[in-house]
Write a structure and sequence with these properties.
This protein is an alpha/beta fold. Helix content is 32%, strand content 17%. The strands form 5 sheets. The protein has a 7-stranded mixed β-sheet. The chain has a 4-stranded antiparallel β-sheet with strand order 11-14-17-16, with no helix packed on it. The protein binds 4'-deoxy-4'-aminopyridoxal-5'-phosphate.
């Protein structure tokens, strides 16, 4: 008989050809499944096989917890892309950027000031995990203190600060610089999206502590792998202690798979993967911008084209997310407006902004994006019928 295929959740009928009108466009999560077709194309070359007796020991043969080959591969990758300086820097591996973010906050906080914990800050709108994680771990050494704009110009600036800088920013895709300055300020640069898929890369980043993640680079969020590039040896040691005591390192299976993936990713100087990533994201942003340009009720962020040192070209914006604003006075709860039109995004209030804003993910599968575009198109055309 014929193979039985499951329909995409939005289609039904005998040949999965009937669009189900109630189907919801889910643009909430930032799961970068848009890269899946690249890995399908390179299936054979990106496969690893691990027999049961392989890699059983806690440690590599030299007693360490990190693969020297993977460390070297990561440095080669940054050199090929030109997005970060790694010469003379220390690298720490972690279970995704998520684990490294906390390790970094721990490593930079002032442990000898029990009565004045370090103040962890970020510029609004910021990635919600910064606040959620810092509050969850509830340490004596640091407290989440909200928006950096409360503390610049030297106002209320007593004490030690840890500033989280996300560039390009999640949710709005803007390239960002640290806001606070001075000897009592430490910075963590979360560069999860500083890759040619999502932004022009103007120059290699050369910051004290930079965090990258496999999830946004190759799309393998489930491998749970990230790395931090660190200038200062004492900070590096503190992050290593954190890793040793919390998990005793990143699984060796993960390190093996990441090595294989990165080898494929940087074939031909990375041209194929980054072209695929850029073209896919470019296409999506062009289509969404065209739809949104017909709307007065909704707007999305504006981003400038910039020269990209990787492609040696002027590059138009290709953000991972749309930062949608509901312009009408009465649409204070923008996600509720979208929800009643079968679209789900992430409420702006989670990012420290107003609920008049919603983040829409543009990095999911092609089907997910097509449905989002279709739903937004329907919503915008109805607005024009009203007027
Ligand atoms: N930082 C930013 C800015 C992110 O958007 C994400 C993922 N959404 C992370 C960190 C966490 O990444 P990971 O999957 O590596 O834990």
């Amino acid at each position: 008989g014929e193979p039985v295929c499951e329909c995409n959740p939005c289609y039904g009928g005998p040949h999965c050809s009937v669009f189900l009108p109630e189907c919801v466009a889910d643009a909430d999560s930032g799961d970068p499944m848009f890269l899946e077709p690249f890995w399908v194309k390179h299936a054979a070359r990106s496969t690893i096989v691990v027999p049961g007796w392989h890699r059983m020991s806690y440690e590599f043969n030299d007693g360490s917890l990190v693969s020297k080959e993977l460390d070297a591969q990561i440095r080669r990758l940054h050199a090929a892309v030109g997005n970060a300086v790694t010469d003379g820097r220390f690298i720490v591996f972690g279970g995704g950027a998520t684990q490294l973010l906390h390790a970094a906050v721990h490593a930079l906080s002032a442990t000898n000031h029990p009565l004045s914990p370090s103040r962890v800050v970020a510029s609004t709108p910021y990635y919600p995990v910064y606040r959620e994680q810092t509050e969850f771990f509830n340490s004596q050494d640091y407290k989440f203190e909200g928006d950096t704009s409360l503390y610049n110009n030297g106002r209320f600036s007593l004490g030690n600060f840890v500033e989280l800088v996300t560039s390009p920013n999640n949710p709005d895709g803007k390239l960002k610089k640290a806001v606070l300055q001075g000897p009592s300020v430490k910075t963590i640069h979360d560069l999860a999206y500083y890759w040619p898929h999502y932004t022009p890369v103007p120059a290699p980043a050369d910051e004290d502590l930079m965090i990258f993640t496999l999830s946004k680079l190759t799309g393998h969020g489930g491998s749970r792998f990230g790395w931090a590039i660190i200038k200062d040896e004492a900070v590096y040691q503190r992050m290593l202690t954190y890793m040793t005591l919390s998990t005793y390192g990143v699984p060796r299976e993960t390190q093996l798979r990441v090595l294989k993936l990165l080898k494929v990713a940087i074939e031909n100087e990375g041209k194929e993967m980054f072209n695929f990533g850029y073209q896919t994201m470019r296409n999506r942003w062009t289509k969404l911008s065209k739809t949104m340009s017909k709307s007065k009720r909704f707007s999305i962020q504006e981003l400038e084209p910039q020269r990209c040192s990787f492609s040696q070209k002027l590059r138009k914006p290709t953000p991972a997310f749309a930062w949608l604003k509901c312009e009408r006075e009465e649409d204070k709860d923008c996600n509720a407006v979208l929800n009643s039109n079968n679209i789900t995004g992430r409420d702006g209030s989670l990012f420290g902004a107003e609920s008049r804003y919603v983040r829409l993910s543009l990095v999911k599968s092609e089907d997910d994006f097509d449905l989002l575009l279709r739903r937004m198109g329907m919503l915008v055309s109805r607005e024009n019928d009203d007027s």
